[in-house]
Amino acid sequence: MKILDPPAVRRWARLAADALGRARTEIDALNVFPVADGDTGTNLHLTMLSAAEAVESLPEDVDAAVVWQTLSYGALVGARGNSGVIVSQALRGLAEVLKDGHDLRAGLHRAALLAREAVARPVEGTVLSVLESAARAVQELDGDLSEVARQAAGEARAALRRTPEQLDVLGRSGVVDAGGAGAAIVLETLAAVITDSYDGHYDVPAPTARVTPMTEVGAGYEVMYLLDADDRAVAALRAELDAMGDSLVVVGGEGLWNVHVHVPEAGPAVEAGVRAGRPHRIRITYLAERTHRASAGRGVVAVAAGDGIAALFEECGAVVVRRAPGAKPPLPALLAAIRQAGSEVAVLPNDEGVGSVAAAAAEIAREDGVAVSVLPTKATVQGLAALAVHDPLRRFDDDVVAMTDAAGQTRYGHVTVADREAFTSAGVCRPGDVLGLIEGDVAVIGGALEQVSAMIVDRMVAGGGELVTLVTGADAPARLAAHIEERLRRTRPDVDLVVYDGEQGGYPLLIGVE
Fold first, then answer.
1. Does one domain contain both 31 and 92?
2. pTM tops 0.85, yes or no
3. How far apart are CA 65 and CA 5, in angstroms?
4. How far is it, in rounded angstroms, from Cα 333 to Cα 323?
5. Is residue 293 assigned to a domain?
6. Are residues 367 and 426 located together in one domain of the fold?
7. Residues with Cβ within 8 Å of residue 42, at least 6 apart in sequence
8. Which residues of 145-159 are buried (b: 16+ CB within 10 A; e: fewer)?
9. What is the DSSP letter of 236?
């Protein structure tokens, strides 16, 4: 790859967000600086997720400048926590340079510079050190885009491992810097997109000692808000907030800013923002104990990709979040559904790709006092099985265990039509071939939808099971379910069959066996 074109930027944003989503728990466990509140990984994931969703909302034909500016804006408005705000400013630096087609070396230099300028009192051994080391490592490098990206990612990883030598609290705690770990993943996924080499691997060094949680004494408040204000007002605001507290980071420009600070009392920090301009999206978090603001009640949130499937979940009492086939639901929609569902909520993603968004929404809802559990449902039929055993009169933890167990005992498959040539575990498929998949792997390739569907059901029930669930899609032939039912009556009369009209696109048939 010679340039970071708009499709590559979109891929990178999503890849970085997903990788941070998978690594967030491990990064949270490293979090000792500036306070050991255990949320740096989550904050970085939510920041990058906001950037990814912003660029994915753009039309396909927009130019590079618009994509980069939108990436920067999405990170700015969605930035959370100290490290999230800093990384959003690093993305702004990359965007300022790369939107005009300049090289990655200059972009990394600008990213590191803006990140440091955003922090009122920079500290070495943090995300700032990781970004600066990566930028320095490539400034004199005489190589193409791939070489620059690989070198920057490699140096970020090396700099991360040096952070305990630079910051005493890290060395005493036996951890690398949490924010630096997230920044390294961001740069590694960038290199992976440029070199087309991503293998799903990330490396977060584990703590070598037990991280001590922050105590309540002297904890204070984390105050964050977006601010509409001019540059002169922000300069005065920085000085005022710096005198009030610590961990001050102010990023943005052109009239929109993201303000983050830790203070003993929240009110004065917000009032300072009012004097400077118009603060909005104000977030105040007591650093030792999350505020509880949830409404009472037990509920289930289910993600659905078809009108019929949505109606099924709604009939069973779930709050439904709809998504297009192959797409992820927006984070705000999932968050709103969780808050609507109650104070104890089980979330059914019903697709492996939705899990990271569901986890992010759950983290935000927990800050409002909602008890949220995201169940590992990878398919609609697993979600239906989980919801079938849901009992709001049980203890929440017991209910989650029962639902998870029901989902785990449901094998899932689906039938679809190939839209391109590809190598699969069952051989080469070509456009128009009918594919039968079991738990994500292609098991059958054929030419007739009814024949492939029957073969997949036969293989799944051969492994045992008492109940077969079929969910027909919008493109399913009228007699598809009836054909399978007749076959099962002949071959497996002991098996019960349930058929639903899911109206989903892309998959003529979804199959569950339990």
1. yes
2. no
3. 10
4. 10
5. no
6. no
7. 24, 28, 80, 81, 360, 363
8. bbbbbbbbbbbbbeb
9. H
Residue 216 belongs to a domain? no
Domain that holds residue 156: 6-195
Q: Are 282 and 275 in contact (CB under 8 A)?
A: no
Determine the Cα–Cα distance for residues 49 and 362; give it in Å rounded to an integer: 14
Q: At which of 354, 376, 408 does a domain end?
A: 408
Contacts of 398 (CB under 8 A, 6+ apart): none
Q: What is the CATH number of the domain that holds 481?
A: 3.30.1180.10
Q: In terms of DSSP bridges, do strands 319-322 and 298-304 run parallel, antiparallel, or are they unpaired? A: parallel
pLDDT in tens, 194-244: 888 877 666 777 665 555 544 433 457 888 898 998 888 998 998 999 888
Fill in the amino acid letter for 166. Q
DSSP annotation string for 39-83:
-HHHHHHHHHHHHHHHHHTS-TT--HHHHHHHHHHHHHHH--HHH
Q: Which of 229, 252, 286 is the last residue of a domain?
A: 286
58 shares its domain with 179: yes
Co-location of 417 and 372 in the same domain: no
Q: Is it the case that residue 41 has pLDDT exceeding 70?
A: yes
Q: What is the dihedral of CA 362, 363, 366, 368, to 10 degrees?
A: -100
Long-range contacts of 486-490 (CB under 8 A, 24+ apart): 487/454, 487/457, 487/458, 488/457, 488/461
- Residue type, position 450, single letter: E
Residue 189 per-residue DSSP state: H
404 shares its domain with 419: no
Question: Distance (Å, rounded) from C-alpha 470 to C-alpha 379?
Answer: 12
Structure tokens that stand for 180 in this block: 């630096």
Residue 291 lies inside a defined structural domain of this protein: no
Q: From CA 343, how far away is CA 23, in angstroms rounded?
A: 27
Token pair in block for residue 393? 């009169």
Q: Residue 220 has what DSSP assignment? A: -
* Residue whose entry in the numeric block shows the structure tokens 């990788």: 19
**At 39, is the pLDDT very low, low, confident or very high (cuts 50, 70, 90)?**
confident
Q: How many residues would you count in the chain?
A: 514
Same domain, 147 and 274: no
Q: Other CB atoms closer than 10 Å to residue 398's CB: what's the count?
A: 10
How many structural domains compose the chain?
4
Q: Which CATH number does the domain housing residue 256 bear?
A: 3.30.70
Tell me, yes or no, whether 329 and 258 share the same domain. no
